[in-house]
Structure of PEP phosphonomutase and related enzymes-like protein:
Amino acid sequence: MTETLYLSGAAMTASMGLPDQGIITVDEVAFFIRQIAQTSELPLLVDGDTIFPEALTSVERFREVRARLPGVKLLANMTEFGRTPALTAEEFQELGYDMVIWPVSSLRVANKAQERFYAALARDGATTAMLPEMQTRAQLYELIGLNAFEALDASIAQSVLPA
């Protein structure tokens, strides 16, 4: 399994304050691609002209789509709480799908965590009860590799305070 970034049409249009109708220019899409390419070395899959079957309700339907589209790269765009069966990435691979994404799953988890956080804040008037659930500053810095960025900054230029 290869780590890959996915840039959805909905994400691009939403960041521009537009509805998810897929009507943006090639220049606008290229802008988003450049922004991501500047910050990541991971491969980027861009939703430029996606056609995908909606709400396949059985493994048999996934097999049927694969059989009807030989040689076409297939992407399973998954979400929870729908009619599509919950399958693993390995199961999709076995069905002949080349890629599978869960584009809103992490958002659902984050939203649930925020719900718990704000309930505790409203109840207690403080964030103390949620400290064990929080990422510490040290964990964040480690995750994003802040020390490497600071070293890069120091190697490029040093800040000068005005006199």
